[in-house]
């Protein structure tokens, strides 16, 4: 089977079983040689996400086909119960898309991205005990060092037909914004998500949302102590939680140094060698899914030592 070529690539697709982890890759023939092609994506935001994402579900389906993404899932944001109407609209859009194209059955999935937040804010929002905009929860007022939580339980997952859950850390749960404090705070949140029974994929490890009152504690991947990375690896493996290779916010980001990207991928390769499942996540927030450079990402991943044919997350 061949795929039409463009100015950069002539793709020759191996005859493989793309439904199995052992054969989950295609090959791209280029001037530089062979590389594995990404075929799955488990972190995609649509216009229903609360954070300005603007991709329409129908465009996602059409453009994923053009990009040869064979297995993928939509994951709009849930911070607290305030965002539940967004999730309901996302599910309605998803069902409409699947009904219009029977060929999506078993390949296109409905997921969700949950944020690590405090139980305090979950309870306050649920009771309506707040003032102002709580789109992103309550980003102040919680007890310092509040225990992390997610606004999602098994009952809601079953009722909404959520097939997989991506868990991400998006902000501190401490008021001490020193570098050491932030590294410790994020680590406990990552450990919480990796151990949570309802979380299937840990998103964008060491991603930092820029803010004016604190420096990026993850400017250097090596700034995080090795024991924390070891603890996380053990938690991921013990609980069957996949580690995400994030494309848009990490590998393709202009705000992340090349050194960080290289060490991030080396850590992922190490995790994979230890038996941890890796998940590809574009983290697309764009109007068009084709804005994601999957070819570049594939090459970066392969050059790092990660094997896109083994132990890759798929439903």
Main sheet properties: 7 strands, parallel
Strand content: 15-25%
CATH superfamily: Metal-dependent hydrolases
Q: Could you name the CATH topology?
A: TIM Barrel
Helix content: 25-40%
Q: What is the CATH level 1 assignment?
A: Alpha Beta
How many helices does DSSP assign?
A: 9
Structural class: alpha/beta
Low-confidence stretches: 1-35
Please name the CATH architecture: Alpha-Beta Barrel
Number of domains: 1
Strand order in space, largest sheet: 5-6-7-10-11-12-13
Please supply descriptive tags for the structure shown above.
disordered N terminus; four-stranded antiparallel beta sheet; 13 strands; TIM Barrel; alpha/beta; seven-stranded parallel beta sheet; 315 residues; 9 helices
Write a short abstract of this structure.
This protein has nine helices and 13 strands.
